[in-house]
Amino acid sequence: MTRPRILGLTGSIGMGKSATAAMFARHGVPVHDADAAVHALYAAGGAAAPAIGAAFPGTLAPDGAVDRTRLREAVLGSPERLAALEALVHPLAQAAASDFLARHADAPLVLLDIPLLFETGAEARCDAVLVVTAPEDVQRARVLARPGLDAATFEAIRAKQLPDAEKRARADFVLDTSLGFDHAEAEVAAIIRRLGGNTTAP
Asked: Is the pTM of this model over 0.90?
């Protein structure tokens, strides 16, 4: 029985990962958004919400959804609490990815869009990994242009992610998103062809 080729997509904050994932989707490649999957797990009725509420009292909103601000405060500065949270959420997130792969078992190529792909060991289930990158000044400008994100928050997020150079060293494909939309589109199409997928975008 054949299965899809699995391409993992990752990159540090502000590197253009979401825009790149959207390009693959426009080519008809099924895309699993790990962040969106976690949001669903945290939502009212989500599989992770009751367990998080039990483990971290006071972190649920009245509707039963996880209050992400309260949860962030509950684990801030505590590696032990953060590890406990990850032990709850990661198996559920991996199950969501497995469900996605099962639903798209007939596709020639699928994309797993996972921000912490290397950090969580998710590259082990991928046939190849694409890392999006950009010069540090471009990355910083993109992040600081986002509402509610300041320099301190940017540095805190970046500190939890593998350095960009290490990600690039471990990648099968590297895409510099600072080189423009047309360049990125051409690179995405070339990667899809290389991995045996179909390029259906106009």
From this structure: no
